Amino acid sequence: MPSLQEQLSKKEELLDIRGLKMVFHTYAGEVKALDGVDMNVRKGEVFGLVGESGCGKSVMALCISRLLPENAKILSGQIILKGDDLLKKSNEEMREVRMKRIAMVFQDPMTFLNPVLTVAEQVSEVYLLDPKRLSKEIAEKRIHELNEKLARMSEEEADYSRTKQDISKFQELLQSHGTLGRRELRKAAWERTVDVLRIVRLADPERIAKQYPHELSGGMRQRAMIAMALARNPDIFIADEITTALDVTVQAQILALLKDLRKEIQASILIITHDLGIVAEMCDRVAVMYAGNIVEVADVKEIFRNPLHPYTQGLLRAIPRIDKELETLDSIPGSVPDLIFPPTGCRFHPRCPYAFDACKQYKPPLIEAAPGHFVECFLYGGLPRE
Questions:
Q1: Coil, strand, or helix at residue 198?
Q2: Which DSSP helix (H) or strand (E) runs through 81?
Q3: In contact, 142 and 188? CB cutoff 8 Å
């Protein structure tokens, strides 16, 4: 049967993760955090990665961006972004990728915002890191504005020849791939910063741009982090539990903002969360993760309507229902396995009510049980793999 990648090859893929294995070296032993993960994010979609704490969701994000700690090691696999294998890139090349193609927003913005720099200094730095790109964008904008101005002027007007000279100056800048002066770049970066703060729905962006992170609320800090991510115009936007530390009202505002931004930006969005409600509201497709494995991938509506993996079924049964009166909530028996000594075969088999001998000995493959619906479980077929 064709692999997950072959099945999805007809779709336009942006991010393709294949057979990713990663471990942490600790004093207690080797933590087998990711165990041959396959995952695919298509261009322009919102993809959800859901699972309980400690299952490897955030580790996936750190692998994609190559921001792993020193005790982490990727053993095998590929992380392909628009045809480029990120695992083959040098540290300097990855710095360029993070600057231009991948943007991440984390759970606690105060941890990642510099407390001694204003919001404007931190957001504008994203623009100033690439002065040639900023100069090109400014030059193209000015040429367009000056041509419109020139079209409204007659040759006899005093400013006519000067306007033509200004157009020629910016055209030469574009042709030479040069950069503007430092003062012009800083002015342009400030204007862009105010614009992007306005895009993320921050009231009075000029005032907020001059403030320090401690002067902002949690929701405002998260919006500032989103603004920094959008400033890069990335290919993929990774949101890692970005609503967890916020109150319910602000969570709803941030989710509404992401919905609106989806229409304005061209990037794919990877939402990492443990909240199935967020997945239902925001995502096109979702992958369910358990103990370092992707156990199910499907369209969001399909996974809520017809969950296949016993773990996914258990998660959905545990959600409180407003249409039924229950004395107790369902729960999944047992506990999350120790990934230093993970179970053999399927890592969920000690907690699975349907486990049989093959589950204890072999890891099941990720197979297509229905069109576009992939599951890692012997209940739906597949040949054992070591």
A1: helix
A2: strand 72-81
A3: no
- Cα 163 off chain centre by: 44
**112/109 Cα distance (integer angstroms):** 5
Q: Sign of the C-alpha dihedral, residues 62, 66, 70, 73?
A: positive
For residue 122, the model assigns a pLDDT of 92
pLDDT digits (tens, 9 = 90+) for 256-289: 888 888 777 778 999 999 889 889 989 999 999 9
Q: How far apart are CA 20 and CA 300, in angstroms?
A: 24
Please, is 342 exposed, middle or buried when counting C-beta atoms within 10 Å of its C-beta (0-12, 13-18, 19+)?
A: middle
Q: What 3-state class would DSSP assign to 57?
A: helix
- What is the set of domains in the chain, with CATH numbers? 4-101+234-341+372-380 (3.40.50.300), 119-231 (no CATH)
Residue 63 burial (10 A CB sphere; 0-12, 13-18, 19+): buried
- Residue 239, classed as helix, strand or coil, is strand
Of 299, 277, 272, give the one whose Cα is nearest residue 369.
299
Tokens read off for 320: 């409180």
Per-residue pLDDT tens for 302-341? 999 999 999 999 999 888 777 777 677 788 888 889 999 9
Provide the whole-model pTM.
Answer: 0.86
Q: Does the pLDDT value for residue 376 go beyond 70?
A: yes
